[in-house]
Fold this protein.
Amino acid sequence: QKEVEQDPGPLSVPEGAIVSLNCTYSNSAFQYFMWYRQYSRKGPELLMYTYSSGNKEDGRFTAQVDKSSKYISLFIRDSQPSDSATYLCAPRSGSARQLTFGSGTQLTVLP
Amino acid sequence: NAGVTQTPKFQVLKTGQSMTLQCAQDMNHNSMYWYRQDPGMGLRLIYYSASEGTTDKGEVPNGYNVSRLNKREFSLRLESAAPSQTSVYFCASSSGGAYNEQFFGPGTRLTVL
């Protein structure tokens, strides 16, 4: 079993929809939770990060972590065609330097 | 400010050939990483270098070697390429910190025939 599981999609939604992207993980030592966004044929870039449980909001994006159920979510409000990309969750434990990436969810927002 | 650069962008090899993928960063980061990305597998860490002069194996190091040439440059070598090494390779760098934000290069698309 992988340490981080992520539904690969693909997920297609109409413009303006609320999008929910999710990951589950098995390592209870994970404390830092990141979401990376990867446009087609580009390298990933950091989108959001949060520490331990709780919510963090940044514009149209909200990152949510529930450590009790080992569940990570990214919500996108008022989705735009420019949000079309692959989203990768990437948790990290406090002691580790490296990240553990989920396999990514491919999102398409249709105009 | 170029960030992380990788060369080449594309490469086709025959089984058994060797090649070196080059990576350089201009952000004065201590840590550098090499990943491969395959469909459905996400990013898998091949090797990383926490600082100049050190390298460590990641999740999938077999068939690869690395060299941290200096603080800016981190190369990945395939000594005898195999079709299973067909993938997109990404180099990344980071300065550390709580979230250890990693900055990625544009990738190298490698096909081994």
Summary: Chain A has a mean pLDDT of 93. The radius of gyration of chain A is 13 Å. Strands of chain A lie at 4-6, 11-14, 19-25, 30-38, 45-51, 54-58, 61-66, 71-76, 85-93, 105-110.
